[in-house]
Amino acid sequence: MGRQLVASVKKEFSQAEITAVGTNSIATSNMLKSGADHAATGENAVIVGCRKADVIIGPVGIAIADSMYGEITPVMAAAVGQSDAKKLLIPMNQCNNVIVGIKNVSMGSMVEAVIEQLKDVIR
User: Fold this and answer.
1) Buried b (16+ CB within 10 A) or exposed e, 75-98
2) Could you tell me the CATH number of the domain that includes residue 88?
3) Nearest to residue 80, comparing CAs of 71, 118, 11, 31?
4) What pLDDT shows up at residue 106?
5) What angle do CA 78, 2, 94 make, to 5 degrees?
């Protein structure tokens, strides 16, 4: 998901400076390969990134402690939730977190929806 998001944001907003923050090194590496300007991995990177971000984009699980198979620590979830950044959270029914009323939608459709919301935020 991160790789697709970064590529789509860069395509639509080539001037945007993207700092990709991954919960693991593979995710971070993939986002960097897809066009992120900067990248970091892990809990402290999330904390620092959330303080500096204008917009945070990711699955809703980034704001739920212990989600994403335990990769999101309580500190990470709090950093996302307490950030002043605009948050564009993508509904993902995974890891015992079910968002009621959300139908199964393709990842491509969700990324397109993020780009449309981001246009409202940036412009």
Assistant:
1) ebbebbeebebebbbbbbeebeee
2) 3.40.50
3) 71
4) 85
5) 65
